[in-house]
Amino acid sequence: MRRRAGELVTGLLLSAIGFFTSGCQTPNVKPFHDATVTMHSAVRQAYNITWSRLDSYEAIDKSGAKITRSSTNHPAIRFTNGWTTWLLVMESMVSYSESLANVVNSGESSKANAKAISDQLTKLVETTPWSVYGEAAKSIFQEVHGLAVSVAQYHSLAKAIGKADKPVQRAAAAIIKDMESLEMMLTPLLDDQTLGIVTKYNNHRAYQNEVLFHRTEFEKQALLQRKQTDQPRLKLLAASASTNAPEIDKLTKDLENAERAQKIVDEALAECDALLARVADTQAAFQAEVKDVKETRTAALELVRSTREAIRLWAAAHNDLQAAIAGNRQPNVSLLVSSALEIRETIRKIKDHE
Length: 354
Fold this sequence. Notes:
single chain, 354 residues, mainly alpha, 10 helices, 2 strands
């Protein structure tokens, strides 16, 4: 996967072309835009596959009762409500990064470029889920929104990106915090699914456990009985060699009694196996449902965490744009691209297990 990430990063960097703003050579920010598009595509794909898994199985609560598909507490609904917001934010990220990349080919004035950047940044701020900050949400939004609007004052690309970075970092922090809240909500919700499945199969599990308990006891008896059967058998062999008739008769009877006892235990074991075979289909269904919900839980939470990390790296890549402009170099987007590829690798693993 590292090799694939390296190839994609190389392609992004090779796509860069030089451009001029205010007479100074500046690095191409198109790689940043391309990496943002790659991230958005991976996250959307992650949403689709995770939602389909959440939507495909019969959701139940702790008691084993069904959760209707229209219920706001259905895992697919809870997941969709959170993820839809993120997709809207990421679409704004793509539009914002595109506004930066468009500066390359823009024939308009620096003022127009700054206004375009400010407009897209403002949309990003407006789609960010500030409600995660509770009562402070309104004041935080107003502060960050004001910073985004003020970017239009800075006609130099370097200054515009520099001033835009604070709103970008604040928005990314809010998105990450919102993702953490969804993870905290999904974890117990998906755990409830496992508990609900266990509850649904309570009668089956009680029956199976009882049979397995007795079978284990019979296995212990069978081992002991085999030993008790082997003892008179070995003694009988020794007595036969000495032609001790009275001893042979006694040992023969002991062996017959031991073999009858062993037969009873063996028949009990066979009966237990027959009882387990009768409920094998139910046991298989129970295990399949538990396996499915556990895989869904793992997939959903892993993709939430991977997406959260991608957002963090996107903000870090944006912050690097300032240093890239100052150092007249290409922006570093390798980690951002790698995070998108990691999301896609997780998706591939999920599909391989379907």
